[in-house]
Hints:
This protein is of the alpha/beta class. It has four helices and five strands; from the N terminus they run βαβαβαββα. It has a five-stranded parallel β-sheet with strand order 2-1-3-4-5.
Amino acid sequence: MYHYDVFISYLRTADPIARWVRNHFQPLLRELLDGNLDREVKVFFDGSVRVGGRWPDEVRSALRHTRILVPVCSPKYFYNEWCLAEWASMERREELACGDRPATLIYPVIYCDSKNFPPYAHERRWENLTEWNHPYEQFQASPKYIGFHDRMNRIAAEIEELLSDAPVWRADWPVLTPRPDVPPASRFPRL
Length: 191
């Protein structure tokens, strides 16, 4: 059975992205989904792992028991072992669940610089949030936050549709651990 509706996947070691997810993206997505659904919404992100919990085991279990993956992407996301495992696992589930119609279980958002994403990532439709990628708490008091809130309302509505179309949970949902490619060499010479 599913334990989570949404699994937010992001590069936890990138401080601006981590702060943006914790300060703005995750709480607002949870609030808007919770307001739209007739049940309590459950969102997994790294703050969901209990103190003393075994990180790899809890992440694998959460991924296996989540309906939709929402990756917050930057170029380095696709070279991180955990992020790649989360994406690849949900992509494989889409293949297994397709039946008569393709399943959409990945709802990717762009935090920054999509031109450096790998080719397979460009095969998906993206939600571009680069205009609102301000990690600081003061962002919520800025006029731009209204636009972010409006966009997040639309995102929540689209994710709500995906949640209702998610396949029935299966005990054999895979959790893959592919090795990431080596990041491309810098285009700029080292001094």
